[in-house]
Structure prediction request, 194 residues.
Amino acid sequence: MNLAQIKKLQKAVGVHDDGIIGRGTLTAVFRKLGASQSRAEELGLAANVHFRTYGILENSLRLIHFLAQLAHESGNFRYMEEIASGAAYEGRKDLGNTQAGDGKRFKGRGPIQLTGRANYRKYGQQLGIDFENNPEVVAIPSIGLMVACKFWSDNGLNALADKDDVLTITRRINGGTNGLADRKAHLAKLRLWV
Prediction:
């Protein structure tokens, strides 16, 4: 992101516009998007590390697409675990749910709503945390945000954000276009901030 975009974002979220995007600015972003103060602080701390690692702060399109998608998936960062029981995912071999109880055990968690035994295994192995045997760990906001950043990177979503392709990003995250209008509404709001 360039200096002018960072300062505009800082003004939009009500922090000192020093042109340096860090923990305080990111905490304010999550707070303005709907997270509680304590959750926003945890997400801001994690984002300050992981957004840089995964290139999400490279430009404003990456940042706003990432935030718009996660705001939709997590109910404006209020829910780190899917409200539904997860029973709808039972027996979904496409998600790696091959054992009885997998649907509920591996329901959506974290701000990107990671779902399915196969995804918990994959991201746990890649990040060095045993999510398959401890799926509830993904619901810890800072861990869930790290998972979301890794998912974003693994699925080539920075390149799609660079093209402003909300439809394909939505399909890669959701598997379809569920909530597309809400994702677009979040994106439109976030555009005004940068």
About this structure: Residues 96 and 108 are 14 Å apart (CA to CA).
